[in-house]
Design brief:
By secondary structure, the chain is an alpha+beta fold. The chain has helices at 5-11, 29-37, 50-65, 100-111, 119-127, 136-149, and strands at 21-24, 42-45, 74-76, 80-83, 88-91, 94-96, 117-118, 156-159, 163-166.
């Protein structure tokens, strides 16, 4: 099936957020399901009207535009700013150098302020099944993040026996 490249696009970190609409004459339920499972955001079968195509494109774009794809900077308190697009973090206007793992961890926590993430959930979100790491790896990254963020490191809270969260004071 030609649309299997959709899976490659969705599995690549650089292209995973590109919306995909499959337009095809193949209209059997199993083919539609396969196309959607391979990463398509919508599946249109022929025949269709130009108005339907435009409406479906607009619907997919609405979902994309409200998603994190076009996310602006994330602010925590008055001092911590995370810019996902530029992969930058600053505290009180000063740039903070973070490793890729530290950046992902901070961004994950900051996107869902107040939500508690277990160590295992953070491991899954950051590395998935790519690496065999222990849950205490998160503790080391949190410790390093707090040190690098200085006073803004206080936003990262430990929830004893559960995990971590970001909470604005």
């Amino acid at each position: 099936m030609a649309w299997k490249s959709a899976k490659k696009i969705k599995n690549n970190e650089k292209t995973s957020r590109i919306p995909i609409i499959i337009v095809t004459a193949k209209g059997e339920e199993s083919e539609k399901i396969e196309g959607l499972e391979l990463g398509a955001d919508d599946y249109i079968t022929k025949p269709f009207s130009p108005r339907e195509l435009v409406a479906r494109v607009k619907a997919v774009l609405r979902r994309v535009l409200t998603s994190e794809f076009f996310q602006k900077v994330i602010k925590v308190g008055n001092s911590l700013i995370i810019d996902p697009e530029k992969h930058r973090v600053s505290v009180d206007g000063k740039k903070v150098e973070l490793t890729n793992a530290e950046f992902k961890l901070l961004k994950t926590l900051a996107e869902k302020k107040g939500r508690i993430f277990s160590r295992n959930k953070l491991l899954d979100l950051l590395w998935g099944e790519e690496k065999a790491v222990i849950d205490r790896t998160i503790d080391v990254h949190i410790k390093n993040l707090r040190e690098k963020l200085g006073s803004a490191g206080n936003f990262i809270k430990t929830v004893r026996g559960i995990g971590y969260k970001i909470e604005e004071e």
